[in-house]
Write a structure and sequence with these properties.
Length: 470
């Protein structure tokens, strides 16, 4: 190229010599200035075009020296002259979560080739933070199909907060002007600062063509335990096996043969609470529980009148089951007996798990070990005239099979102490002491068992509602 320029310069000198001779010999001296100007223009303006016509095209139009201009992988237009990084990313919210997942490949990534080998440390650090955050957000979006929206948002929030934390750790470790948000010590205020500075808080698409994803340079693991408890419980309930109904429905039809059990054992039959039921999926169980509670309430009122209690209870039973089959504003219930209008009541009677009220008539077996559950009630309501503290402190902490032996031993010791004591004792105990030494423990045991039975019946009268699902 130098020799070509030298050749051009020689041609210029030749032209200059010829022109100077012509101008000097010319009878028009005023043309000398114009000739010099014309030759100067030729050299400085036309010589480069002559050089380009003889040189390769790549050597023409050279830009001033400086760093190479390259752009992100998605950039297809003119190459940028600066290293712009869309930093920081905005906070994930329920409003922008869909855009985070849908437009992930339409937001820029910054590969190592985007920057020169040296310099631009601040921009490189920010680009790395963006690359990591976008990679972690994409991980959360991949599981979006199996997670609920709230869980995906929780994952995205953790990824974004981790990217902020990692960036500030590196930024503050370098001797350069720190990013202003990283100077904030309060974590919530720091995160708000990053979110407010985001140039694209809605995570909208900013690239014309899809970009190639880049792997993260740091590890991110989603921890669902840090999410709100309600979100995880909702997630768990949705994936768990549905709970089975545990309700005695429908109740048997009251008759003259069963009315005594209906009235006398009403406190032994359960009432149901629907507050424990999930919001959806258990509508039929809730309706059945309400119906049982209303029927039992009607039975309680009918049992007060001995003459009409059978007809009253039967009428209340039929009324509530008719209401059960005709739910308000929703038409008929899809229950087998409700669809059989010709013999509806017989169907309910056959469907009843306890049609003759026999199951609820059975009393719970009472043993001496029940003193652990009833000793407070016995002391307040049914005192036996002697302390039961030793039974509670020595036998109740033991395993069930060991309680019986402990109770028998203490009963033997207590019998001897009571009969040998000179203190006043109840008449029931005095009569036991008149028996033989072998019969005395059994007699005192009957006194304790009687008090346990009374305390158990008293406690059962405090009817509590139970959940209709197990």
């Amino acid at each position: 190229l130098f020799f070509k320029w030298l050749k051009t310069f020689a041609q210029y000198c030749t032209y200059l010599l010829i022109s100077t001779t012509w101008v000097r010999e010319s009878f028009l001296p005023s043309l000398r200035m114009y000739a010099s100007t014309l030759l100067t223009f030729f050299f400085f303006k036309l010589a480069p075009s002559v050089l380009c016509s003889t040189a390769k095209s790549a050597d023409c139009g050279l830009s001033p020296a400086g760093p190479p201009t390259v752009g992100p992988r998605s950039y297809s237009g003119p190459l940028p002259t600066t290293y712009n990084v869309q930093f920081p990313l905005g906070r994930p919210t329920s409003e922008n979560l869909q855009a985070i997942c849908d437009y992930s490949d339409l937001r820029p990534r910054y590969p190592s080739s985007y920057f020169p080998d040296s310099g631009y440390g601040v921009d490189k650090l920010r680009a790395s933070a963006v690359n990591n955050a976008e990679a972690w957000l994409s991980t959360c979006c991949k599981d979006n199909q199996t997670w609920e929206r709230e869980v995906t948002l929780c994952c995205a929030t953790q990824a974004w907060e981790l990217s902020v934390e990692k960036y500030c750790e590196e930024d503050l470790s370098i001797k350069h002007p720190w990013y202003r948000c990283c100077k904030i010590n309060d974590n919530n205020k720091r995160l708000n600062c990053f979110s407010n500075d985001a140039p694209n808080p809605n995570y909208g698409p900013t690239q014309g063509l899809p970009v190639e994803p880049l792997p993260s340079t740091a590890e991110f693991t989603f921890n669902p335990n840090t999410c709100q408890r309600s979100l995880i419980e909702r997630k768990t309930k949705k994936l768990s096996t549905p709970r089975a109904a545990d309700i005695s429905f429908p109740p048997g039809r009251p008759t003259a043969d069963t009315i005594e059990s209906v009235c006398h054992n009403q406190r032994l039959r359960p009432a149901y609470s629907i507050k424990c039921l999930p919001r959806s999926g258990y509508e039929m169980v809730a309706l059945q529980a309400k119906t049982v509670n209303l029927i039992e309430k009607g039975f309680k009122s009918c049992c007060k009148n001995k003459k009409t209690k059978v007809s009253c209870a039967d009428q209340k039973w039929r009324e509530e089951l008719n209401k059960f089959c005709l739910r308000e504003n929703t038409g008929r219930v899809n229950y087998p007996c409700c669809l059989n209008q010709s013999d509806k009541y017989s169907c309910f009677q056959q469907m009843s798990p306890d049609p003759y009220y026999n199951v609820t008539s059975a009393h719970e077996e009472v043993s001496l070990n029940k003193i652990c559950d009833t000793h407070k009630t016995i002391k307040k309501k049914f005192p036996v005239g002697f302390p039961l503290k030793d039974f509670v402190t020595q036998c109740c902490p033991l395993q069930e099979e060991e309680k019986t032996a402990c109770s028998a031993r203490l009963l033997e010791e207590m019998s001897q102490k009571l009969c040998a004591s000179k203190r006043a004792v109840p008449n029931t105990v005095r009569r036991c002491c008149k028996s033989s030494s072998q019969e005395t423990p059994q007699c005192i045991s009957k006194i304790i068992m009687s008090a346990i039975t009374k305390a158990t019946n008293f406690s059962s009268q405090k009817k509590r509602k139970r959940c209709p699902i197990s």
